[in-house]
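Per reviewer request, we include the raw input and output of the structure prediction for the construct analysed in the revised manuscript.
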Amino acid sequence: MSDRSQEAEVVVLGGGPAGASAALHLARNGLPVVLLERSTEPQWRIGETLGPSARPMLDTLGLLKGWSAEGHRVSPGNGSSWGSDPIQFTDFIASPYGSGWQLDRVRFERRLWTEVERHGVRLQLGTRMTQARREAGVWDVDWAGVSTSGSLRASWIIDATGRRGEGVRRWGRGYESTDALVAVFSRGRPSQQTSPDQEARTWVESAPDGWWYSALPPDGHRLMAWMTDADLVRNWPGREREGFVEQLRMTKHLGQWADPARYHWDEAPRITSAQSRRARVAVGDGWLAVGDAALSFDPLSAQGLITALLTGIRGAETSLRSLRGEREAGATYVAGLESIWKDYRRLLYEHYAQERRWSDQPFWARRHRPPVP
C-alpha cells in the first residue's frame, strides 16, 4: 500500500525524547509536523536518570501536569566512590529544582507520543525514511513501513535518530569522537527473600580499568553497568552472565546487590556504545540534528536525557525561526551546541582528574590528558 498524500512543515526523524520534544514544541506553536519512528512501541533502554535541572524543560513541553502520577521514582541524589574508597553522598536538596528521577523510560516515551498526537502531530510508527531530496527549498521524503510506504513534502527535517545519526551521515560530515567508551549492562530481578529495595540514588564506583554505576528504575529491576573502553572490554571476564556477577561481587560497594538474597542476575549482559562524540555539521540547508544525533555524552555526566530535551526544544525553535526567514537562527543553534560541548569536555576532564589511584592504567591515563580545544 502506498500513501502519497502527505504534506508537513517539518518532518522529525526519530521519536525518542529529543525527537518527540522537538515535534511537540513545534506542534504547540502551530506547525504541521510528521514524526517518523522506527519502533511500533516504546522500548526499554539504558539511560534512566533525569536530573532536577530538567524541570524547566518538562514545564516548557507541558509535561509537568500529572507528572507525579506517572510512576517515575524520585531520586534524592547520588552516591560516589571516586578518588577514595568511602562512598560520598551528594543530595539534590541544594538544587533550586528539587529532586531528580529514575525514569520508567517506556512510560515516559509513551507519554511523549500521546502528547505529540494530542497536539496534532502525525505520528507514524514502524516507519523510517528511505530517501530524501531537496529542491527549491522543499524536501521530498520517501518513507517505508512493514506493509506500507509513501512520500511527503516538507520544508524542514529534524534528525533525531540518536547515535545512528541518519541525517548527519547523509547531509553532514559524520562524527568526531573523543573516546571509545562502552557500557556492559544487565538488570537484576529482585529477590523475594528481602524487603523491596528503596535505594533511589544513582551509585558510581571507580575501578582500575573503568567504573560502575547502578540505578533503580520504577520497575524494581536494578540496573548495573560497567563502563570501560572498547579495546579493554574485549578480554574483560564480565561479558558473560556468570562473569558479570563475579566482577560485580569484587566491588567494594555495589557488590551488595550481587547477593542472590537481594537480586537474581539471570539476564545476559548487553554492550552498547557510550562514547563522547559530536556531529561535525549539525545544521545544513533545511535540516538540523538534535539529541544524540548532534551530541553524545559519557554517562558520568548524567547529561544525555537533559540535553536531548534541551536540544529538542532549541532545535524546534531554530526551525521555527529559519522558516520565518531569520538567517542567523542556524548559527545561533550551532553556537549553543558548541557551548554545551565545550563546558561538557571541561567538566568531564575535571571529574575524571579527581580519580588518581590508577593513573598508570590505560583507561585513566587516556582521561587524564587535557581535552584538545
